[in-house]
Structures are given as structure tokens and as C-alpha cells.
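Dear colleague,

Thank you for sharing your sequence with our group. We've completed the structure prediction you requested, and as agreed, I am returning the results in plain text so they can be pasted directly into your records. Please verify that the sequence below matches your submission; if there's any discrepancy, let me know and we will rerun it promptly.
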Amino acid sequence: MIAIVFDGPPGPEAGRFVEVEQDGRSIKFGEWEEQADGYWNLNLVELVPLETLRAQLAEAEANIVSWEDYVEYMTGERDEYKKQLTASQAEVARLACPRCSDDVIGFQ
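Please find the predicted C-alpha cells below.
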């Protein structure tokens, strides 16, 4: 629960604003803005319904799983390309020096 705290009750000499609290702890819940007429506004942040936050969290978690799957796939692709590149380099080296062994060329 969010509580807007005053130092006295409402009435002809109403209490002054103290702070905004949540579960007994002071929180920042908006921004103070001075108006041209000398009054001050406490502009409160827009509240997002819990259902909306849960839906956004579920979507974000799904995106994380998708990225993890993508990274795993790309890691496998990268490893396969490295193998192909090494084999191609070894073949080029063999063609360039038919009498050289793989140990001398440096490819395995």
C-alpha cells in the first residue's frame, strides 16, 4: 500500500505534507513542480496495472530464452565453420607444398 503522509488531520488548518511511503518506507513517487501561480504540484508517476507488468515480464523472459537458443545455435555454427576453415587451410597448404607433412604445415 502507498500512503501519502501528513503531519496532521484534514480540517481548517490542515496538516502539511511529510512524505510518500510504501510499507512504512519513504519512496520517491513523483516530482515536485512549482507553478507560475505560486502553488506546487506533486506530479505522481503513472501506475501500471500488475497484469500488464506480468505480461511484459513473460514476454521479456520468452525473448531471453529465444536469445539463449540463438546463441547456442550460432555457437554450433561457428564451431562448424572453424572446422571447415581449418580443413580448407590444410588443403591449401598441402597443395602448395605436396611434400610437407601436416605437422610441418601446422594444421591438424
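Summary note from our side: The longest strand covers residues 17-22.

Kind regards,
the structure core
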